[in-house]
């Protein structure tokens, strides 16, 4: 159910309507800044989460923000292209997460599970491939849609602050993916963990189909929709992304090996603020609680009265 709902149906319904009615709404600038804000806070929040499905859900929110940014700069076809490719590899990620959760006794905390690369080798391979597609590794499905979106934005006039936000949000995709892979496959690697394996043919067959699509669908769809479109960017921009990714990759591996880090009170407060998606869940709860109470009173007075 999560693979269906959180990758390609309900969460993308509003984005699909924005794509269909983009030309008559006239809110491109507004949704562009909303998209930039969304990809930054969701990518940063995913690096603090410990729930496996929440991390993947925040990753979905980050990809939807990227689609909204593409709509904001006026490339409607490319936003729909990324919507399709995202649905493919994200549904595979959720299916792999379901296998992991059931194999570990319905545990979703990534700090507890580990060593799944040995107990669930096929699912682990599928998970790594889909994570690479999510990060936009060259020649996988995510690369053909995600990379061209960033290039379309970088080739135009850029606000420096927005450029920094988009650059950092792009790096966050790699950081939470590497962190997730580390905890799932290499955390508690030497400790014996009781596991109930859930790798069955009934789940591996659809996952194999999604894996093939995650590897080849992006190139196939782009060859049909945009056969002769090519973007050339200066080498400085390309190298900047590369060195940023490699540097952060090394830092992630270093901090994951550090078990205890002493934080000051201000640092802990900032960590709490950033890790809770800038307190937006708490603020939204405060806003919706009166509405929920009003609904409960209406049910008692009208429906059951």
Class inferred from helices and paired strands:
mainly alpha
Between the first and last Cα atoms, what is the distance in angstroms?
A: 36 Å
List the uncertain runs: 258-263
Number of structurally distinct domains: 2
Radius of gyration: 21 Å
- Return the average pLDDT rounded to an integer: 80
Overall geometry comes to globular
Write the layout of secondary structure elements.
Blueprint: H1 2-8, H2 10-20, H3 22-25, H4 28-46, H5 52-72, H6 76-103, H7 116-119, H8 121-135, H9 141-154, H10 160-186, H11 201-225, H12 235-257, H13 265-275, H14 280-303
Helix pairs in contact: 1-2, 1-6, 2-5, 4-5, 4-10, 5-6, 5-10, 6-8, 6-9, 6-11, 8-10, 8-11, 9-11, 10-12
Structure, explained:
The protein has helices at 2-8, 10-20, 22-25, 28-46, 52-72, 76-103, 116-119, 121-135, 141-154, 160-186, 201-225, 235-257, 265-275, 280-303. The protein has 305 residues and is an all-alpha fold. The chain is globular, with a radius of gyration of 21 Å. Mean pLDDT is 80; it is low at 258-263.
Briefly say what this structure is.
This protein has 305 residues and is mainly alpha-helical.
Task: Please supply descriptive tags for the structure shown above.
mainly alpha, 2 domains, 0% strand, globular, 305 residues
